[in-house]
Amino acid sequence: MARNQPPFTWARGFKERVATDAPPAWADERYYTDSEEGTRAHYVPSDQALRPTTKMGTTMGVEELPGWPALYDGTMGLGREGHNGVVDRESNGMHNGDRNGTTNDLPNGPNHQENKPLEEVDVLICGAGPFGLQVAICLARMGLTFRIIDKAEAPTLTGRADGLQPRALEHLHAWGLSSEFAEEGPILNSTVLFRNGVKLFHNASSQCDSRYRGIHIITQGQIEKIYIRDLRRHGVLVERGVVADSFQVQDTVGPDLTSWPISATLRNIHTGRTESVRAKYLVGADGAASATREMLGIRFDGLTTDCYWAIMDCQFKTDFPYILGFCIVISEKHGGVIVIPREDGYTRFYTQITGEKARQLSEKRNGRRNASAVGATRIDDHGITADEVLEQLNKIMAPWKVEFASAMSWFAVWRVNERVARTFSTPDQRVHIGGDAAHVHSVLGAFGLNSSIYDAANLTWKLGLSIQGAARPEILLPTYDSERRLFANRVIRASGAYLRFICNIKQPLAELRGLGDDLEVHKEDLPALDGTTEADQRFLRSFFGRNAHFLLGVEGPIVESAICPPDTPSPTNIRIPPPTSLHNGVRVPNPRVCFGPASTAYLYDAMPGVARFHILLFASDMQAVVRARLVRFAEHAFAPMGFYARFGACERFNVLLVTKALPREADALLKGDPALKQLRQRATLVYDDRAPDEDAHNWFAVNHARGAVIVARPDLKVGISAWLDRSEALSEYFGGFLVERK
Asked: Where is the region Disordered (predicted)?
């Protein structure tokens, strides 16, 4: 949402603006008072508090958006004098008012014990930006206890992150939230790139086989609202105006599930009151200048570029013909511009600041450096006006013209850092960092928000299983650092090469370490930047040929570990092909399937949740030789000493039987054998009724005579694959990192 919405009505069955200046229906007193008896409803919303969305405006001013106080912002109060603790425990911290103590308690505010801050929690989350909120919603789904704190007084209103990759939406789908995100703004369908007036590229934007296809536009303010609503449904509020001043981690012997080795001191930044909280794990989600990372002494490897972006979200008047698509316009003399269409008819312009203005910005930022490796991270102290940015924008866009056509929704100035933390986890695996605290880079590729989703999807199931005593943390938790750090390294290189092409920067890529002490070797090419169209087009072909799927989130580095063992041929006959063409560690494909005579969907629709492994059994038509192998799998897998019972049964495993049999046929085929009856009781049937060239068996390249079993990890990556009659391979796999049930 880029601006405050005018009143709407649905009186005629569809949404249309109210033609008068009447207040919106939710603000009309008649909706909260019985017209006959005059009694007042228990539910009465607090007045919305309109807040400016940015500090820098156009001649038409700045936009305002409602910031619903307290509960609808998912926020615990800032604390009142005379009460103990960081938040007001007597009112559960949920009240309206200012930091001086004036309050207006919500008449319908919940008064649940779980909303009172706990002194001992499974996880303390420091930071309530996208990464912190994503960690929180996943932990909530696992029933774990946590507190989430943030120094900001309210959620982000608008601006910042602006696009979701298809892979990110697949994770959000597993968490039950994808439709809210995918339906908010436009999808990027076309890409146009100009350099010095020459059109280098004009085509459909990169898409993939995901149900979400391409990049979906949504502003961070809406993203945080969705997460906050989700946390409220779980009885959790963000503690605002609160920071962790310090924390200590006590040494523990082995995976002690009953102790809270982390002791943190929390401080209310407005009242100065402090509180101690104990936790089993701590997650640093506190942004690029992360205090958590700095307190741990983790180096932030990489470099700071001399590239400055001024970012404006606004409505514009322009004769540029491609304003409704994703565009890049480059002027060798003046710099680069990125154009992104937004919701509500708004457009985002990223404008490169060059020349004397860039030098002035650099002096100002360097003059207020802080202890963090990234230096000054304030984006609201600009050193440049909106009109000056518009002037620079028009120099780059010439001969096209751009003018402001509305109040400003968001304005910021960003200096590009390209950095990755030396490690994402402490050696004892008690403290982990993610999101901007672990990696920062340019906007190219839209990896800021998306990487935070991938970090959360990777970390939380590992934390959850470790806390619940279902996994061996010394084996499972280190894979977060190895898997996510190598992904971040590639993000830095890919976005960095793209940045140098657009901004004409002749600067080497950041040197980053791999999993050891040595610098990681990579194959990312830098643009020639020799001014020729041929060199530009050659770079674009090479760059997108290598990174097209990576930029959509569906491809990435594979790191071998206990949860991602190396691909191996048949131990007895190397000429026998593997059970599937999928490599361990890649994204699990998501083909169209059927769940019944009147229900079609995608495979992922049967794979929800955040902490269960999905056992995909591909059994062709369940007849002849493949039937015998399916029976053998069921006999061994569901036996008392099979992997299913040993490692958690239905609590840990979601079994899917993918068959070419139609619904009526499948029911008959599963009735004849006791082992298959057990399978039917435990499995969701997935009917693979498409033609052989487009069915799920083809997507996974499964042999119809032998069948296959594929383990999908909770983060929807392939863990291992095996022949259908080798369930012992799954026992060996899960035995490597899970704990047997007693």
From this structure: 86-115
- Between residues 374 and 360, the one the model is more confident about: 360
Q: Which of 17-26, 130-139, 381-390, 670-679 has the lowest mean pLDDT?
A: 17-26
∠ CA(660), CA(663), CA(664), 5° rounding? Answer: 115
Sign of CA dihedral 165, 219, 12, 324: negative
Arch. (CATH architecture) of 306-416: 2-Layer Sandwich (3.30)
DSSP state of 237: -
CA nearest neighbour of 156 among 82, 65, 242, 94: 65
Both tokens of 336, joined, read 């680069």
Taking Cα atoms as reference points, which of 215, 443, 172 lies closest to residue 342? 215
Number of CB atoms found within 10 A of residue 232's CB? 18
Distances (CA, A) of 202 to 327, 342, 534: 9, 20, 16
d(CA 318, CA 328): 15
φ/ψ of 717, rounded to 5, equals -115, 155
CATH 3.30.360.10 holds for 592-735 = no
- Give strand pairing partners of 564: 561
Give which of 92, 33, 29, 97 is closest to 69, Cα–Cα: 97
Other beta carbons within 10 Å of 151: 17
H or E element, residue 485? helix 478-503
Could you give the CA distance from residue 162 to residue 449 in angstroms, rounded to a whole number? 8
Identity of residue 577: P
Over the stretch 392-412, which tens digit does the pLDDT of each residue have? 999 999 999 999 999 999 999
- In single-letter form, the type of residue at position 668 comes to A
Report the run of H or E that residue 387 belongs to, with start and end: helix 386-397
What residues have CB less than 8 Å from 321, skipping those under 6 apart? none
Say if CB 32 and CB 43 are below 8 A apart: yes
Q: At 664, phi and psi to the nearest 5? A: -70, -35
Answer for the pair 634, 597: CB distance below 8 angstroms, yes or no: no
Largest Cα–Cα separation, the chain = 84
User: What is the reported pTM?
Assistant: 0.92
Residue 615 one-letter amino acid: I
Q: What are 159-183's pLDDT values in tens digits?
A: 888 899 999 999 999 999 999 999 9
Residue 512 pLDDT > 50: yes
Q: How far is CA 321 from CA 192, 216, 311, 326, 502, in A?
A: 10, 21, 21, 12, 20
Predicted pLDDT of residue 74: 67
Helices (H), 58-149: 130-141
Tell me if 201 sits within 8 A of 329, measured CB to CB: no
The domain spans of the chain are 306-416, 477-557, 592-735
Cα 50 to Cα 154: distance, rounded to the nearest angstrom: 12
- Nearest of 125, 120, 431 to residue 277 by alpha carbon: 120
Cα dihedral 637→639→641→643 (10° resolution): 20
